[in-house]
Design goal:
By secondary structure, the protein is mostly helical. The protein has two domains: 74 residues; 62 residues. Helix 1 packs antiparallel against helix 2. The radius of gyration is 20 Å and the shape is flat. The chain starts with 9 loop residues before the first helix and ends with a helix.
Length: 137
């Protein structure tokens, strides 16, 4: 199978554009946090550059290859693989938050509450999404 690049989605562009104001906010003197500023500005600008390159590469493809890439994106097998990968990633994230909360409980109670809260919110969103998807299918 030939490797092709897909066209960037609007959500990817919006995410990168929203990272830039986050970086600017945290680079302000009153809120200076170097890591967040670097992540926001570097991720936003770097992401926009990467998306622009990917769009340029996609536009260079022949019309037949563009159709093949779009068919690969909508293929049921590829969709199932992406959903399975997302599910595994989600489970790893929740487990990481719970482990971080257990470790942080020895040092800072605020971080522990934030981690437990994020894990609980994630699990509730996961349950709600599963119930909603079962209802519509």
């Amino acid at each position: 199978m030939k490797k092709g690049c897909r066209k960037p989605t609007a959500a990817e562009w919006i995410f990168c554009l929203l990272l830039i104001p986050v970086g600017v906010f945290f680079s302000d003197g009153a809120h200076y946090v170097g890591t967040y500023s670097c992540i926001g500005l570097g991720g936003g600008i770097g992401g926009l550059i990467g998306l622009s390159w990917r769009l340029h590469s996609y536009n260079k493809l022949s019309p037949q290859r563009k159709r093949e890439v779009e068919l690969e994106e909508r293929d049921e097998r590829n969709i199932a693989i992406r959903e399975k990968a997302g599910s595994v990633t989600w489970k790893v994230l929740i487990a990481g938050l719970l482990v971080t909360a257990m470790i942080a409980s020895q040092f800072d109670f605020t971080i522990t509450l934030v981690c437990y809260g994020l894990a609980l919110a994630g699990l509730l969103v996961n349950i709600a999404a599963e119930l909603w998807l079962r209802k519509i299918m």
